[in-house]
Design brief:
Largest sheet of chain A: 2 strands, antiparallel
Number of domains of chain A: 1
Order of helices and strands of chain A: HHHEEHHHHHHHHHH
Strand order of the largest sheet of chain B: 2-3-5
Order of helices and strands of chain B: HHHEHEEHEEHHH
Radius of gyration of chain B: 29 Å
Structural class of chain B: alpha+beta
CATH topology of one domain in chain B: Alpha-Beta Plaits
Oligomer: heterodimer
CATH class of one domain in chain B: Alpha Beta
Number of strands of chain A: 2
Strand content of chain A: under 5%
Mean pLDDT of chain A: 87
Structural class of chain A: mainly alpha
Shape of chain B: elongated
Low-confidence stretches of chain B: none
Chain lengths: 329, 204
């Protein structure tokens, strides 16, 4: 392990942390603006040009707010829960190639923190660990609504892990590797070679499961705003609540990257155009998260479970079996 | 016009019975319903509707401090003291009826007899913290001097918040420009009410 590699890794980690923390802030801005436009409103307009500095205002507010630890909560667990959400979201980013490799000042940079050979398994595993944020936060909050939300969150996350894993199994069988770089190279032959054409069912299933994994609107039962206030986040305030938020938005960006790389060709052949195309795909997938929030209502928890176990999981299993049969012959 | 058309009190009567199918009882029926709902594409209708609104960009937000919605002519907000159109002097003759009728006892005035032995208002104040904006003062005023204006922003640092005669009096430059607004007042017709009025459904 030489010094250059060490420094490069540190720099990459810092860049990813800062860029995606900032992007989480911009994500809230885009969400508010796009939802507003879709509902014929203006969204934030007063702070800065087009309300852009609203992010800074919100950040200052979150950082300077009093950190309230209510009486009756289990202190250490209550304090650590938001950190788990944010940390696991960023840890999952370690195995995601954000751009094709490029050469700068004669030094080739691989924009992936660790190209481990179990990349996608690692990402799914770490995202599954992210469940402990809402779960522990809700359980330690000394609030029955937080507890309900935590229980719901746990059931949703664990159930949809099944769908995510099974739906992604078919592409893994086709590629024969778990590294996202290999996934990308498998589809580097242009639009025709994208995984979404050979595995459309897996793509749809993974997309649906991504909504549940990130807790976004059609499956927004974890922090169910209209029913149990803010779910597991009810008792949180200030930056601890902000960490939950950053974790949620970072997760949305990372799962968009994963979807774009696994199913939509990633950065293609590695040219600058391919990198831009990857950003475009991620932007569309992120936009879709906001779009559905404006368009669709939430489903009930029992409908969500029904959808997972009686519809999506059987389809995923059938998809895996058919893929296996096709691959065999 | 026939009687039926006149009796039709609803402006638009195009209701129709929604075709609701019976709830499926068998497993196969439920399965068929799920499949039908899945592939009917109603989710995309919802997506299209919100995207269409975003593209049309027909924003309905009123940016309140800069823009304000027009307010009805009957609205009773902060009082104004009007001037005579002929001589630009104030209309108030100091009769004291407004002070007398005020149910919240928020009007206080002092008068004196001036050199031409006419009554003149020396002090006049309304405590807007007490005022209930009932409009009796404007109604009782024999000279149409005290009226209600359209200014409804009366946030204050204290509960007691006074306006004086000079505050309420129409500024002289506004008066010279001829843009003093009369209070149309009680029973005034709401703008556009002609269009929203429905015809009497009586045929005779």
């Amino acid at each position: 392990m030489d010094t250059a590699f060490f420094i490069e890794t540190i720099v990459k980690i810092v860049v990813i942390l800062t860029v995606f923390s900032a992007l989480a802030g911009f994500g809230t801005y885009f969400e508010r603006k796009i939802l507003a436009f879709m509902q014929r409103r203006l969204g934030p307009t007063y702070v800065g040009p087009y309300g852009l500095l609203q992010i800074a205002a919100d950040g200052i507010k979150l950082f300077t707010k009093e950190d309230i630890i209510p009486a009756g909560v289990v202190g250490p667990i209550f304090k650590i829960a938001p950190v788990i959400t944010a940390a696991t979201a960023f840890m999952a980013a370690a195995a995601i190639p954000f751009m094709p490799e490029f050469t700068i000042f004669g030094y080739t940079v691989h924009p992936i923190v660790a190209d481990i050979n179990i990349g996608i398994l690692y990402i799914l595993g770490i995202m599954a660990v992210g469940l402990y944020g809402p779960l522990l936060g809700g359980m330690s909050s000394n609030n029955k609504y937080s507890l309900i939300s935590a229980a719901r969150g746990a059931s949703v996350f664990i159930s949809y892990e099944v769908v995510t894993g099974l739906s992604i199994l078919a592409p893994i069988m086709m590629v024969g590797s778990l590294s996202l770089i290999d996934f990308n190279n498998y589809q580097s032959g242009g639009i025709g070679s994208w995984m979404v054409w050979s595995q459309p069912v897996a793509f749809i299933l993974f997309w649906i499961a991504a909504f549940a994994e990130t807790g976004r609107t059609p499956f927004h039962l974890i922090a169910n705003d209209h029913e149990i206030i803010d779910g597991f986040g009810t008792e949180y305030s200030g930056m601890r609540w902000g960490l939950f938020f950053i974790g949620e938005y970072a997760n949305m960006f990372f799962i968009s990257f994963v979807m774009a790389i696994i199913f939509l060709g990633g950065f293609g052949d590695g040219s600058a155009l391919g990198a831009l195309a990857l950003l475009g795909k991620v932007a569309f997938l992120f936009f879709f998260f906001l779009w559905t929030r404006a368009a669709w209502p939430d489903v009930r928890p029992d409908q969500l479970m029904w959808l997972c176990w009686k519809v999506l999981m059987p389809i995923a299993v059938v998809n895996v079996v058919i893929t296996g049969i096709v691959l065999m012959f | 016009m026939s009687r039926e058309q006149l009796n039709d009190r609803n402006v638009q009567q195009n209701y129709f019975q929604v075709d609701i199918a019976d709830y499926p009882t068998t497993g196969w029926g439920k399965f068929k319903r799920v499949v039908a709902r899945t592939f009917r594409g109603e989710l995309f209708v919802g997506l299209w509707v919100v995207l269409r609104e975003m593209i049309k960009f027909d924003i309905h937000t009123v940016r309140y401090p800069e823009e304000k919605m027009p307010i009805g002519p009957r609205y009773r907000a902060i009082h104004e003291m009007l001037r005579l159109w002929e001589s630009d002097t104030e209309r108030c003759i100091g009769c004291g009826l407004c002070e007398k009728i005020c149910v919240a006892s928020c009007i206080r005035m002092d008068t004196r007899i001036d050199e031409e032995s006419r009554k003149e208002v020396t002090e006049y104040s309304i405590n807007l913290g007490r005022c209930i904006f009932c409009g009796y003062c404007a109604e009782v005023c024999p000279e149409l001097a005290i009226v209600h204006g359209p200014r409804y922003e009366n946030a204050s640092e204290q509960r007691a918040h006074f306006v004086t005669f000079e505050d309420m009096l129409t500024p002289i430059d506004v008066m010279k420009a001829g843009s003093q607004k009369e209070f149309e007042g009680f029973g005034a017709v709401i703008p556009g009410s002609d269009e929203s009025v429905k015809k009497t459904p009586l045929a005779y």
